[in-house]
Design a protein that fits this description.
The complex is a heterodimer of chains A (167) and B (582). Chain A is of the alpha+beta class and 167 residues long. Chain A is 31% helix and 41% strand. The chains are: A alpha+beta (167), B alpha/beta (582).
Amino acid sequence: MHHTLIALVEDKPGVLNRVASLFRRRNFNIESLTVGRTAEEGVSRMTIVIDTDPAGAQRVGAYLNKLVDVLQVEELVAGVAVARDLALVKVTVGGHDKASLLRVVDETRAHIVDTGEQSMTLEITGEPPHVDAVIARLKPLGIIEMVRTGQVAMRRGDTALSATQYS
Amino acid sequence: MYCLRAHLVMPIRTGAQIIWECLVHEGVQTVFGYPGGAILPTYDAMLDYPIHHVLVRHEQGATHMADGYARAGGGVGVAIATSGPGATNMVTGIATAMMDSSPMVCITGQVPSKMIGYDAFQETDISGIALPITKHSYLITAVEDIMPAIKEAFHLAKSGRPGPVLVDITKDAQQASIEWEWDPAPVKIRGYRANAPVVKTDLIKAEALIRAAKRPVILAGQGVIQSGATREVLAFAERIGSPIAMTLLGLGGVPASHRLNLGMMGMHGEAWVNHAIQEADLLLAFGMRFDDRVTGNLKTYAPTAKKIHIDVDASEINKNVAADVGIVGDLRETLKDLLDFIKPADHSAWVAHINSMKGDAAVRDIQALPDTGHLYAAHVINDIWRITEGKAVVVTDVGQHQMWEAQYYHHDSPRSLITSGGLGTMGFAVPAAIGAKMARPEAEVWAIVGDGGFQMTQAELSTAAQEGVKVNIAIINNGYLGMVRQWQEFFYDRRYAATPLRSPDFLKIADAHGLSGFRVESRGQVNDTVQRARAAEGTVIIDFRVEQEDSVYPMVPAGADLDAMIRRPDNSVLAETGADKN
């Protein structure tokens, strides 16, 4: 089962290595891991998706908390969190496929971000299952290149996760 | 203008000087190390500071000495090495300290910062290598970052769950100078909290489980020693009349002679202890981590027991064994709080039941057995216990001798047993014993070590001789890598692959170092030789030629149920008694 963990970490060299090393050492498989800045100076935010059971997710949270450079850890509960994934997908445009492709674009709120002579590049944004579904529809049309950012996520509602909330 | 400013100017210090200034401010008196190119500026500065440097013969020795120093003395051990091979030689010692939560700060030199990444001579990514085996690690490339890193390193090493911290400092950072003075402000690291405050509702839940228990067992681990909770554990045990089972690293945390102390649990624990755990209805885990060597098969472990787990490390709660109540906090503080809630109880029937399982083997009274002319390790270790009146600091390696030590040397005080438990490091004992002796010069220190492990780090005899420290080294010499041989006997049809071991003449090794050496081949020689060794000046070696194919009993095979123990065969000289075999 997929679990989504948020880690607020020090924006320092080597922190990503410490986090990644932890997952490898403790024998957890990372489905996706994204890192980026936050609104707080010196604080980066990781969204980590792992495939494990609830006890495993609890262990990972505790191990992450032990890392000196990790400031806050939270597991997001599906339903009370907003999650987004972004994919860029380059699809071949060969004659009769173009109409089907444009229909997929139209029906899935995908954006055409680039067109070449024989290909079209689409941007798909949404909840990860939505992105999965669109990719599944594009596959028969001929995907020649694809990249996904991995999931980013945030609690719904007014409460916020902050590096300074407990200190 | 310049005159006004003059008295405000701080003294100029090099990075190398700052390292020593910091160590002095941290109260360090002894460091263990080995010089080399990338750490040379620091060694040059060393001569101007009042810190004793012990020159080791291999950097692994420096880390084990620092570890033994920390565990015996209760402070932080410091090891120093150069870059590259100097640093990588520390890896085993760092991992040993990590697994046994020993507070240690390792300082390594690194190639100049501009050369990092270019595969320079003796360059290695030690902060990367050490990352999963340290509590935290630093790569310092600027002189102004040295003091914060060393202050944090000491704070991290000794607070919360202790552990090793590595500070890798580039040569140019050691050489550069700044205006500098010691900052006495306490360390604050925003991502680190050593201790969580105890949650009162958890104490109330724990109290309810304790009140309801009929068959409680306290599981006392190294946390008892590290938090200094001996008195609180005893007060708790006596209040509710609960028996206490010990982990290997917990030995000494509760006096072995206390009426409620059952002895060691686990793979080579006492049979009655393992049976008591399996029959218990409440386990009170105090500063222990349910290691596989103490639980056996987790699926059948203590099946009828509720579990209360108190540990300073939150990640230990629910890691191996699910806790009904998990309390994160310093053990001593937590027990103090908990004792306010706990009412006296009487479990004397339960204790009597466990005592009845002990049978005649309860005292492990092997002294009374007739001398058959054979020399058993158990006799040797039991004799050393008797002769030293149980007051020595004993340091062991890993293997059969380690388990016999745990069974036959009865520890009554904290920090009197120092052993590589978690990592199980051969070669630990001799250097760690040297470190222990330097931390506690007044103590009688014994290294009990196998013939295999002794040879892994015997070069440190040279260090002991150079330092003039007295460590009594008992080599339990059975001509085999004994514990591996035992597994081959039990589980590999006695196919002794690579376990027979030819050793040099250990007396000549001692002699070559200008040290005394003795050999013991029969039980009748043990007493006199141990006394002579104790009286001899400087480090001594006793080569105990013990029974070659003796095994450690009882034994829970790896992964088996905790009460599924292999027992000593009846025809053995050291046969356990019938009453012990239920």
